[in-house]
Recover the amino acids of this structure.
């Protein structure tokens, strides 16, 4: 059985929730959207319940400060070839 314990990291006043499967982080889209909303930047709202590192990077690219912080914070993690969505999600 996998350990899907919820992890958290803070970006300023925001908490970003994520879990890790096989060294690949998966993020809560709600948390990413909250950060982007403060910069008056919209992130496409869709039905995805989880985003991998690549998807988050693609969606936050226009926010330089957040993008640079995110890249440094999660550089030790791998990329996903296939997104794994556990049921239930830890958030």
């Amino acid at each position: 059985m996998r350990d899907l314990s919820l992890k958290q990291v803070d970006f300023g006043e925001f908490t970003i929730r994520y879990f890790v499967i096989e060294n690949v982080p998966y993020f809560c889209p709600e948390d990413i959207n909250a950060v982007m909303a403060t910069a008056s930047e919209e992130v496409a709202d869709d039905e995805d319940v989880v985003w991998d590192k690549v998807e988050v990077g693609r969606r936050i690219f226009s926010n330089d400060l957040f993008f640079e912080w995110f890249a440094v914070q999660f550089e030790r993690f791998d990329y996903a070839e296939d997104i794994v969505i556990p049921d239930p999600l830890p958030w």
